[in-house]
Amino acid sequence: MPPAPLCPCSSGLRYRECCAPFHRGEAEPPDAERLMRSRYSAFALREVAWLWKTLHPHHPDRARPQDEVLRELRAFAQAHQYPKLVVMDRREPDADGLAQVLFFAKVFEKGKDRSFVERSDFRHDGTGWRYLSGVALAPKELAVPPESLTLATFPR
């Protein structure tokens, strides 16, 4: 029998031991980084229900019809490949409960590099960590290699 597949979030763990319990609703990610990793894996595996569930109530997409957002997420996920994720920096929740994660997502669409660096904001909603917002930049918009950035050096 072949070994279980590695998790798309690039943690080095097997999917069943990493993001699968989150996607199956068996557990909530313990922190913002794990939530972000689970969302990357959800895009890679087309787990669009998880992507919807993990949007913070104040995220703009939550004001739109759920079916419409799910349809768009599904189309986006199906059109792209997600070979690698690099987490460069993270910030624990501040006094207002805002946590941040800086990551470099390798993403391809029909062979074209659509990779980006994003500073994501997360808040706990009483049940779990949720994606609030993000600022994304293409590597060509950066003056330095993406992997060299930190939250402090990410362009505002």
From TrEMBL:
Residue span, YchJ-like middle NTF2-like domain: 31-134
InterPro entries on file: NTF2-like_dom_sf, YchJ-like_M
Domain of life: Bacteria
SUPFAM superfamilies from the UniProt entry: NTF2-like
Protein name, UniProt field: YchJ-like middle NTF2-like domain-containing protein
Naturally occurring in which organism (per UniProt): Myxococcus xanthus (strain DK1622)
